[in-house]
Amino acid sequence: GTSVVVYMVPQYSSIHIAAVVVSMFSTIICGFLFLLVVKRLPEHVQVDDPAVVKRLAKKLERQQIPLRSDYGYKVSLFSHLHQYSRKAPLTQLLSIPSTVIHPSIVRLGLQYSQGIVAGSNARSVALLHAFKQVIRDYTTPPNEELSRDLVNKLKPYISFLNQCRPLSASMGNAIKYIKKEISNIPSQCKEEEAKTKLLTCIDRYIEEKIVLAAKAISKYAIEKISDGDVILVYGYSSLVNNILCEAFEKSRKFRVIVVDSRPRLEGREALRRLVQRGISCTYVLISALSYILPEVSKVFLGAHALLANGYVMSRVGTSQIALVARTYNVPVLVCCETYKFCERVQTDSFVSNELDDPDDLMVTRKGKTQLENWQDVSSLGLLNLVYDVTPPDFVDLVITDLGMIPCTSVPVVLRVKNLDQ
Amino acid sequence: MELQAVLMAAGGGSRMMDLTYNTPKPLLPVGNKPLIWYPLNLLERVGFEEVIVITTKEVQKMISTDPKVKLDVKMKLDLVCIQEDADMGTADALRHIQQKVKTDVLVVSCDLITDAALHEVVDLFRAHNATLSMLMSKAHEFTETVPGQKGKKKTGEQRDFVGVDGTGKRLLFMANEADLDEGVVIRKSIMRKHPRMHIKTGLVDAHLYCLKKSVVDFLADNKSISSIRGELVPYLVRKQFSKSTNSPKVIDETHQNLKKNDSNVNLEIQISSRDEELLHLTQERSCWNDHRGDMSDAYHGGRLRCYVHIMDEGICYRVNTLAAYIEANRLAPKLFDEPAVHPSAVVSERCLIGADSIIGASCQISDKTSIKRSTIGVSTTVREKVKVTNSIIMHGVTIEEGCNIQGSVICSNAVIGRGADIKYCLVGSAQRIEPDALPFETLLRPPCLRSTLTPTSTHRSTHTQCLFKQLNRNNTCLC
């Protein structure tokens, strides 16, 4: 701007100097605004920065929550993420009749870290159930307002759950919703009334965003399933399982191929539930994918979150399935409820991911565990990733409760959702 | 509040009457601390702030008045007294305090000495929403010779059969040899759900249980159950697999049959909680299952679940027999950091005190004594030239010069005369051993009025002074 002004005004004059000064100020102000608008990186992806770790430790100490220490050697590309061991639960640092953290939150944290509650929908429902218990047992201290104090009470619980297992995008959205509802409670509302209102809000959220959304998605998805289809699913997605069971009940004739991968082997549970209904299934590991794909007519995938640039964040291996399906020209349909839409933007799986316990990769066959002393081998690192992102070019359609949209329309849905709220 | 701690300290110590006829079991000194201190210390370390202690009036009186019994715990102790002659079992005691129980309970026995990580037991209770969670440990052979027993006699105790599943955490089967007629009988329904069961026999039950509040309410309605370990735990373990707890249809009918005094019905209703549909929805959407290979849901749809944590290493003793008491005295000092020799003890320089001995407060140890692998109690006087090896000396004992005590237990306020040579004996409370006596492998306790030994007589050979003219096989004169 300064150079343009200098060029435009032919001779020195007071207007010239004034213009230069104004343009200099504007660049400085723009610089400040730029710094304000750019968001700081979240703490859980900056574990290799000691200042951030110290800040986190101080925050946890203030909230009286123990700090969970990282475990084992981290592969250098992922050293900015946390890696915890399942054998060192956070509860061994807590006192047993937990007074700082509500018992149902401690139970929930344990269930998360041990994998008893796994899957995006299950985790959100369990979180909301625990929050209902917290709200029921809450009493407003004197001289405090429920709308402010309850939100402050929930903050240490959320830090605790984050330490047990990093929060998922769906959980983050649910927490945002609850915080908004709590802050919107008018101050003259009596405590009992406020609590019942909050409990009904939570019930309504679950009913609308999870249960009814699943029904709506099944309705749309069943239109896409025709008789004689061979459908490929990956791992365990509660939504996709729901769709297939409903389609089977509506007497569509199809068969399912379940693709599974180590170390979680979640496909076994998906397989069990489908076979229990009577659907004929085939089970393969992901290494046999290109062998089995020529038989497949459609691929149904579940999602952990849908990012604002149209990328699909899902269990590790999903992007591989989508890539190979694209090469074989098999349509890929992603099913996702709108409450899992997230405003984050990511183009690779490195920046923000979750590192699971590396000891899960060890397998014992005939009494021998080959990787038993992997920590002693200096050039060996075990990496157990949980999520990966799939680019929108590999996804043909996203089925949500608002309808069937292309992947690139996700920002539109987010904008509409924000306007609603 | 999440858990309430209940400490059962009303037991009589029926298997070690030689020690407990005078001192109640919770106050027996182990490593110079009362036995009840150990479970209280365990609870305090873990973070409990209040404990309900169920005990007898005698113990309560001694705790509040006797200066030697100092409990040194910062927690609030809520002492509940029960009548000594009421013959109450542990479950009866729980029923007695049902009004005080507001949440799930952690029941501990007063004779438990352990350094177990309690969070393992409680985590099983929390994570799986279990009805019962307990602690067990691999039993260790007792290596010390027990006084009064000829050689190492294997106790003919009934074995416990404990069946766990493949992970080693879920409790499937529990029975005592005394209850089984010919063999171990396992129902087919259990085998169908858990085809791989590991049955273990060498386990010590630590008598530490996490119970849901609904179990305590159930006990209040079912007065026939009187012991937690003997009746309640096997009942709950069996109930996991009974048909009525698994079918959801039965629950709807039972809501209408509330008036019926059926014990099955009551436990069922009490287990279900509010927001049952949300929990059900979570389980439905979650991809976790506790077993593989059959078509059933997680936990086989069962609502009652019992878990056990089996400790591989670490200290875990139940001090309910003499052998356990002696073993515990050897190992208890490892559990606390106090110095072996109490600062207020007067120990002369020319005595030899081994590193693994403990000297209590206000003791007087004179010259030329040798104390090895022993525990000396509070206010005990040991005169010159005494050799104490492998023994337990309780409070207020006087040992005159020249004695040689080996492998023995000397109870409180006893007096050992000059030059006595005591090997592998148990001397009862306030007994007197005459000088130069040589008891060997005997148990001396009142009311044997003539139990004072004459010089150079062994109690085994001359028994003319005794009212009973014969000894029983334990070399005890039971007058």
Automatic annotation (TrEMBL), chain A:
Positions of transmembrane segments: 15-38
Xref: PANTHER family: TRANSLATION INITIATION FACTOR EIF-2B, TRANSLATION INITIATION FACTOR EIF-2B SUBUNIT DELTA
Gene Ontology biological process terms in this record: animal organ development; central nervous system development
Family, per entry: Belongs to the eIF-2B alpha/beta/delta subunits family.
Free-text function comment from the UniProt entry: Acts as a component of the translation initiation factor 2B (eIF2B) complex, which catalyzes the exchange of GDP for GTP on eukaryotic initiation factor 2 (eIF2) gamma subunit. Its guanine nucleotide exchange factor activity is repressed when bound to eIF2 complex phosphorylated on the alpha subunit, thereby limiting the amount of methionyl-initiator methionine tRNA available to the ribosome and consequently global translation is repressed.
GO MF terms held by the record: guanyl-nucleotide exchange factor activity; translation initiation factor activity
Assembly and binders: Component of the translation initiation factor 2B (eIF2B) complex which is a heterodecamer of two sets of five different subunits: alpha, beta, gamma, delta and epsilon. Subunits alpha, beta and delta comprise a regulatory subcomplex and subunits epsilon and gamma comprise a catalytic subcomplex. Within the complex, the hexameric regulatory complex resides at the center, with the two heterodimeric catalytic subcomplexes bound on opposite sides.
Species the sequence originates in: Oncorhynchus kisutch (Coho salmon)
Name the UniProt record assigns to this protein: Translation initiation factor eIF2B subunit delta
Highest taxon, organism lineage: Eukaryota
Keywords, in A-Z order: Cytoplasm, Initiation factor, Membrane, Protein biosynthesis, Transmembrane, Transmembrane helix
Keyword set includes Nucleus: no
TrEMBL record, chain B:
Keywords carried by this UniProt record: Acetylation, Cytoplasm, Initiation factor, Phosphoprotein, Protein biosynthesis
Domain EIF2B subunit epsilon/gamma LbH: 344-436
A GO molecular function held by the record: guanyl-nucleotide exchange factor activity
Record's keyword annotation contains Glycoprotein: no
Main location: cytoplasm
Domain of life, source organism: Eukaryota
Localization per record: Cytoplasm, Cytosol
Keyword Metal-binding: no
Domain Nucleotidyl transferase intervals: 5-140
Pfam families: LbH_EIF2B, NTP_transferase
GO cellular component terms listed in the entry, alphabetical order: cytosol; eukaryotic translation initiation factor 2B complex
UniProt record, GO biological process: central nervous system development; cytoplasmic translational initiation
Subunit note: Component of the translation initiation factor 2B (eIF2B) complex which is a heterodecamer of two sets of five different subunits: alpha, beta, gamma, delta and epsilon. Subunits alpha, beta and delta comprise a regulatory subcomplex and subunits epsilon and gamma comprise a catalytic subcomplex. Within the complex, the hexameric regulatory complex resides at the center, with the two heterodimeric catalytic subcomplexes bound on opposite sides.
Function comment: Acts as a component of the translation initiation factor 2B (eIF2B) complex, which catalyzes the exchange of GDP for GTP on the eukaryotic initiation factor 2 (eIF2) complex gamma subunit. Its guanine nucleotide exchange factor activity is repressed when bound to eIF2 complex phosphorylated on the alpha subunit, thereby limiting the amount of methionyl-initiator methionine tRNA available to the ribosome and consequently global translation is repressed.
UniProt-listed PANTHER family: TRANSLATION INITIATION FACTOR EIF-2B SUBUNIT GAMMA (PTHR45989:SF1)
The family this protein is said to belong to: Belongs to the eIF-2B gamma/epsilon subunits family.
Protein name per its UniProtKB record: Translation initiation factor eIF2B subunit gamma
Annotated organism of origin: Oncorhynchus kisutch (Coho salmon)
Lineage: Eukaryota, Metazoa, Chordata, Craniata, Vertebrata
Gene symbol of the encoding locus: EIF2B3
